[in-house]
Amino acid sequence: MAPPPNVKSEEIVEESMAYQLDKRPISTIVFIIAMQTEAFPLVKKFQLSQDTNSVFPEGVPWVRYHGTYKDLNLNIIWPGKDRAFGVDSVGTIPASLVTYASIQALKPDLIINAGTAGGFKAKGACIGDVFLASDVAFHDRRNPIPVFDLYGVGLRQAFSTPNLSKELNLKVGKLSTGDSLDMCPQDNALIIANDATTKDMEDNLNYFAIGFQGAAVAYVADLLKVPAIFIKAVTDVVDGDKPTADEFLQNLAAVTAALAETVPQVVDFINGKCLSEL
Questions:
Q1: How is domain 27-277 classified at the CATH fold level?
Q2: With the C-alpha atoms ordered 206, 138, 101, 54, is the resulting torsion angle positive or negative?
Q3: Is 179 known to be catalytic?
Q4: Phi, psi for 88 (deg, rounded to 5)
Q5: pTM above 0.90, yes or no
Q6: How far lies 242's CA from each of 82, 102, 130, 191, 245, in Å?
Q7: Is 38 a known active-site residue?
């Protein structure tokens, strides 16, 4: 009979491998972006090409743009158009699927979920502001059963990037995720409750915005142990007096342009650095 494995030795080996990975310069980045309108300016900025031999399963609408920028292998993944309705495949289900498939196919060192979101005026968010998310959670998975309630919220921390936020002077706050553009009273109550639950532990950072993808991307990234950061530009004021859909559509083009200015700055900062330097 073989002797039992030396658990302590295995732990030391795993820690050593993790340390080596952490000290290796970042090479491959995968962007998960919900909408074609958000993705195209970045595709143009980085001069990326659409993949003609898809790394994804046959029949899915997911689109990959890829190329080299400085020392980085960049991949922008857009879930594509819904086959039945012809609109962008927004929401948590497409986000989860493309994140999982992208990690399996491309083995990224870092995931960046970039896009637009609705912001809270009461938390200091203004139209056109670009935020880095410190934490992400769901606000529309209501499970009022002990422990299942925490699972429903699914609070996860983004990968810590103190040097990046300081260098680019980006606002930092919590990102809440749901599958609806508007917000019902129950969602609002849960966002407030989530903040009250976590703020003592999280340096009093408040939920600044809501979006379609963040917590879903975070769930898969955490599951597969890939660092993920979240960059969101504010298109509409959730707690304002204008209809959300109207304000979103009115500001989408201008805010997407602001996002397209910030994301290359983020990528320039990342280039040549290892994860621990972010």
A1: Rossmann fold (3.40.50)
A2: negative
A3: no
A4: -55, 135
A5: no
A6: 28, 37, 20, 20, 9
A7: yes
Which residues touch 214 (CB under 8 Å, ≥6 apart)?
113, 117, 133, 136, 175, 176, 177, 230, 232
Strand 156-157 relative to strand 171-177: parallel, antiparallel, unpaired? Answer: unpaired
3-class secondary-structure state, position 171 = strand
Distances (CA, A) of 248 to 26, 65, 122, 136: 34, 25, 18, 21
Give Dmax (Cα) for the chain.
72
**CA 206 – CA 194 distance, rounded (Å):** 10
Q: Which of 109, 135, 140, 236 is catalytic?
A: 236
Pair 158, 133: CB distance under 8 Å: yes
Q: Please spell the DSSP secondary structure of 107-157, one letter per residue.
A: --SEEEEEEEEEE-GGGT--TT-EEEEEEEEESS----STTHHHHHH--EE
What length is written for the chain?
A: 278
Rounded mean pLDDT, 91-114: 96
Residues 165-170: what's their mean pLDDT?
93
Q: Exactly one of 14, 38, 203, 261 is catalytic; which is it? A: 38
In tens, the pLDDT along 64-96 reads: 999 999 999 999 999 999 999 999 999 899 999
